[in-house]
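Q: I'm a student working through a structural biology exercise. My instructor gave each of us a protein and asked us to get a predicted structure, then write a short paragraph describing it. Mine is OmpA family protein. I'm not confident about reading structure output yet, so if you can add a plain explanation after the tokens, that would really help. Here is the sequence I was given:
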Amino acid sequence: MNNPSSNNRQNNDFFWPSYVDLMTSLFVVMLVLFVYSFKLFKDREGELKQANGELKAKAEELEQITKIRRSLERLEGKYFKYDPANERHELLVPVQFKAGRDEIQDAYKPALLQAGRTLRTVLKSIKTDQPVRYLVIVEGMAARYPAGDPRNQREEQTTYQLSYRRALNLLNFWKQNGLDFGQDRNIELIIGGSGFFGTGRYQGRREGDNKRFLIQVIPKVGRMQ
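A: Happy to help. First, here is the predicted structure for OmpA family protein. I'll explain a few features afterward.
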């Protein structure tokens, strides 16, 4: 006949080791989960710090660009007009080229020289908390012939070269008169020609006014190479 007290003792001897093993396993699982959660938290904390740092840098950069854009308003006046729709400046000197020619006539040179001096003076006078480089795009344009003139189609491609040469002649003229933008470490100059095309062109009766120059100044804030 079985002894009840003996059975209870055997059950207890079996229960407690199993219970201890279970609790040990649970402890190990909780410890692993804690370590894993802590690592995730630290990783997330690092990502948040990095993101906050990047956001702060972007905010500071945006603030600098806003200040620069306000300073560029000093260009507006006798020689430049800002076009808010296309975010660029139009050179107000009413340059007129002979049809199909790229030479700048002497009558326009004094005003063009003063415009170049104004541009360089304004760019050099802007003060910023961070290094800044200016991408200056000088774009030449060309006017179409009257509607129906076959030269509009025949010369469509060659006017890209023509308008580019007009912009190049302007830069060479400035350089010959002591305005060498290439010597300014914080100015990167690009010459372009849009021919019969480009945004913000005059239409209709003002087509002839497309024989002009556009100046676009794009500030780049940050470490300079």
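A: Here are two points you could use in your paragraph. The first strand starts at residue 80 and ends at 83. The chain is about 50% helix and 15% strand. It's a good idea to check both against the output above yourself.
Q: Great, thank you!
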